[in-house]
Amino acid sequence: MMVQDRVVPKTVPTPPHHTPSRSNNRNFAKRLDFSTWASENSYKILAVFLVIGAVAALFFLRNAGDSAALLCFEQSNSAKSAAHKIHYPQISWSNVAPVRPLGPSVPYSSFKSEKWILVSVSSAPTDALRALTRIKGWQLLAVGNSETPTDWSVKGAIYLSLEQQAQLGFRSVDFLPYSSYVRKSVGYLFAIQHGAKMIFDADDRAEVLGSDLGRHFDTDLVEQKHPVLLQYSHANPNRTVVNPYIHFGQRSVWPRGLPLDHVGDVAHEEFYTEVFGGRQFIQQGLSNGLPDVDAVFYYTRKSSGLESFDIRFDEDAPKVVLPQGMMVPVNSFNTLYHSQAFWGLMLPVSVSSMASDVIRGYWAQRILWEIGGYVAVYPPTIYRMDKVEAYPFSEEKDLHVNVNRLIKFLNSWRSNKRTLFERILHLSYAMAEEGFWSEQDVKMTAAWLQDLLAIGYQQPRLMSLELDRGRAAIGHGDKKEFVPKKLPSVHLGVEETGTVNFEIGNLIRWRKHFGNVVLVMHLGAPVDRTALEWRLLYGRIFKTVIILAEQGSWDLAVEQCPLGHAYKYLPKVFERYSGAEGFLFLQDNMILNYWNLLQADRTKLWITDKVKDSWFTKPKLGNADEWFLKQGEMVAQVVSNFPVHFQTSYKESMGDEDKITFCSSELFYIPGRFVGDFADLVGLVGDLDIHHKIAVPMFFLSMDSPQNFDSDALAKTVYKTKLSPNDTFSSIYTAQAPAVFPMKVQNEVDFVKLVRLMASGDPLLMELV
């Protein structure tokens, strides 16, 4: 994960799903009436701050009345769970009006510079930041947010306050959260508008080695004689992402944004190819001291929480470039962009904070191929000190859940749009459709591209895509060997082959097993106190987590669905995720121990048919319970109208037609091959008021014989219908069962208790509390 002056727990988004008008944006006094909004919505603000990875920080933030996590989780899931169709922006590209020139009263309106260093600032100036102003030939631009001190000032730096940003006339400003480093997008546009030909995306705590960017990066691509560079080879045609740290001598370290199932790929390259330079439009530098690592690495690779990392990379290793079809994580605190790639600076607004720049990097790399450009990785260019601060695993959720799928998607994506900007918008729309970000980022992309045109940016021309020539023809230059150094261990006392690798390996296995399974949860507890927490807990494992509740919440991406008819909502989810391997339904009072389900057959139906207190039959006739009697009558009516295959299966499974099957249905699994049948059965029920606990077992018995269920998957579920007054979480819960009922999680405190108990099955969870 990346540690910079982002102050992640303080990220305060624009009120959820509220897009200020441009007129309001320019009238900043109205737009920043945030204290009133916070007061009126305090119950929502308090709800969004559970960060399982830093419970102490959680309570601090809740007391402070902040609203950090909402944008990250609500919007990152809104694309996945929003029922409405995403609208494709219609833009008249040739009619974008220029941005009105700023008057002389606006500071720096006439200033021009070709080389810019850009940072986000949320606190008082650091010595490292002041040093950036002294780098010869470069202009420092600091972008403020609502956390920035009002008197922020550094000699030699241009500072853009929120008020000044609102006056610039950029469409993009309307989509940016108030207290987030993603406001850097305004700064990028400002720099481009004021003559930028290259932009160094930096961190205000990073020290440039030797105070000379030109010594580390290729700043002159036009006049240089295009020296030969090393390029990763396509010896393995299935490899789509690499860990560049191996090339620079640290095979046991991995960058934030690298899919976790690639952590174990520590072998160096058999050979490289040689290619001419000159098109490395995005240049990623490495950081000595504290590199860009994720929370899994940071939490687990220390023998003591008080020790600081001081990791060193090989300064003599040659720079290396990535061919088309192969990607690398790119961050926003040590990266040089040339003008040909300025379009790729836009930071997404609807994903979690620590995922925004990495997702941007993968998105930009894919578009870079369309103009014949590539990313190059350079030896260490900066030094960052590890201040041993809390690292929020939750802020990386969108990485660990989606990044592998994103890389595969980007490699398969194609567009026949006629211009680069049209293809960029096309890709952004496709990524929203796939749930990698929300419709908000589609709108942001449209605004961003129009802003670029409005300030005079000339979009690069398209080139033929090498990717379609076949992997063998990509990077087909001369072969070159380079054996990386093996620099000293960075584990600080943790054995590489010990417990840590075992635990990370488990997480990878669980992700591989359930990574294409959609979890649909129905909440009975207050959604404003638990919805985000469930996403944090299970989002690490499943493809996505859809949250349903009796009362929906647009702010929290919770969809309204009465529990009694929850089964009727599932076809909507099936349609939304047609490529999913299966769908797991779970109520929040049933705790899922996913580590005990690796042997379950994902091609078969699972339900608690072997748990006697959860599944049983009752006679229809002579039943004193009027509810059962009415339900039985409706079941008979529906079954009589079933097609032959459903009716036959149901009657053979029931044996006695005078009985009705009841299942509590807190937990069941539907594989992809049965989703069509399930949807058909929902249609046959129609408007009849058959309860979820009656309909689900009826559907299961109609779709297949119980002999074909994977009944063993959930057979050992702990299911208690009667609890004593002395029962607690610890007396009910066991990590050895596939699931445990009932566990009523009502608030964040309950969640902390639950996570500590579950850590006996998933030890990495302990690093989060």
TrEMBL record:
The chain crosses the membrane at residues 42-61. Keywords: Membrane, Transmembrane, Transmembrane helix. Coiled coil: none annotated. Residues 1-25 are annotated as: Disordered. Pfam families: STELLO (PF03385). InterPro entries: STL-like (IPR005049). It comes from the Eukaryota. PANTHER family: EXOSTOSIN DOMAIN-CONTAINING PROTEIN-RELATED, GLYCOSYLTRANSFERASE STELLO1-RELATED. This is tRNA (Guanine-N(7)-)-methyltransferase subunit trm82. It comes from Rhynchospora pubera.
